[in-house]
Amino acid sequence: MSFQWPQRLQLATRPTPLQPLARLSKTLGGPRIWIKRDDLTGNMLSGNKVRKLEFILAEAIDKGCDSIVTCGGIQSNHCRATAFAGAQLGLKVHLVLRGEPMALDGNSLLDKLAGADITYHPQAHFSEKLDDYLQSAADQLKADGYHKPCIIPTGGSNGTGVWGYFSAAEELKRDCERLGLSPRFITSATGSGGTQAGLSLGCAYFDMPASVLSFAVCDSEAWFQQKVTADIDDFYERYEHRLSAKPEVSIHTNDAYIGEGYAKAGPEVLATIHRVAREEGILLDPVYTGKAFHGLINEISAGTLGKEGDIIFVHTGGSFGVFPFRDAFNQVVT
Ligand SMILES: *Cc1c(COP(=O)(O)O)cnc(C)c1O
């Protein structure tokens, strides 16, 4: 299926490898698990967010923006990737973070090293007040002499950000052709919905037989249904003229593995991270990929995903997120 690219920067290292998890697949006794190494999209730009930023920042620069405001949790991978991409492109970055200021660690330490300004806002009522926080950060940038701040939503999940995983779906299709795979499922973590939106739309558009199954790390299945639909609608509104078809997209979310909430990982998730590091030499993170992968192997063990064929897990990054969990890991790493 052909389409016309919008503007795009080259920020990510692409294509990323698609590798088998041979030992783990064997011990689980289920389908073969493959891992799409989007943790290798870069060093500081590591993870899924840089794929979205290639399109979002291209558009921002085209509009004449000289500075960026975005938001997330204290340990947001999206904010860290934006801070480093901004430094690389000469754009000032201001981050609006959810939570109380604490000692710099993991991603928040990296944000500061990349020269981002940070304001912290209490968790309570954060989402209702977010627009005001973003606007006052933009006003502050103007007061500091920047002419045109651009506001990027949580996780870079909007119609423009959808291009990131729409194009990753095309990349995956080529990976599968090369390796002779016909995966039954393409799985990943979902948080702000943009990765799920891009993968779900892209797999439908590029006619992949796989169904996209996303493991929620926060919020309910119903929330993701609504959010992913909204991101895809926004994408169509802005870019439908670039596509040659408008496929039916089905959205599948599993919300059974959130545990106590966003950025809270129970000992079972940390044990899975330990297991995958030990058995496969791959590092997952407590907030997103560890939780989602824990869900995936549980579903495989329960037999709900069948016993045969191939399943792809998209490793969306997040490695720096292990460090703020050092104390909790002390309990499970023996
Ligand atoms: C943001 C993030 C996700 C979720 O992606 P969304 O597009 O926000 O749903 C998954 N994994 C990691 C490591 C992330 O940083």
Question: Explain this structure to me?
Answer:
With 334 residues, the chain is α/β, with parallel strands linked by helices. Helices cover 43% and strands 16% of the residues. The chain is built from eleven helices and ten strands. Strands 1-2-10-7-8-9 form a six-stranded mixed β-sheet, sandwiched between helices. A four-stranded parallel β-sheet has the order 5-4-3-6, with helices on both faces. It is globular, with a radius of gyration of 19 Å. The structure holds pyridoxal-5'-phosphate. Residues 47-49, 77-78, 155, 157, 189-196, 285, 288-289, 316-318 line the site of pyridoxal-5'-phosphate.
Secondary-structure map:
Layout: E1 18-20, H1 22-28, E2 32-37, H2 49-62, E3 67-73, H3 77-89, E4 92-98, H4 106-113, E5 117-121, H5 126-143, E6 149-151, H6 162-179, E7 185-190, H7 194-205, E8 211-216, H8 221-239, E9 252-254, H9 267-280, H10 289-302, E10 310-315, H11 326-332
Parallel strand pairs: 2-10, 3-4, 3-6, 4-5, 7-8, 7-10, 8-9
Antiparallel strand pairs: 1-2
Helix pairs in contact: 2-6, 3-4, 6-7, 7-8, 9-10, 9-11
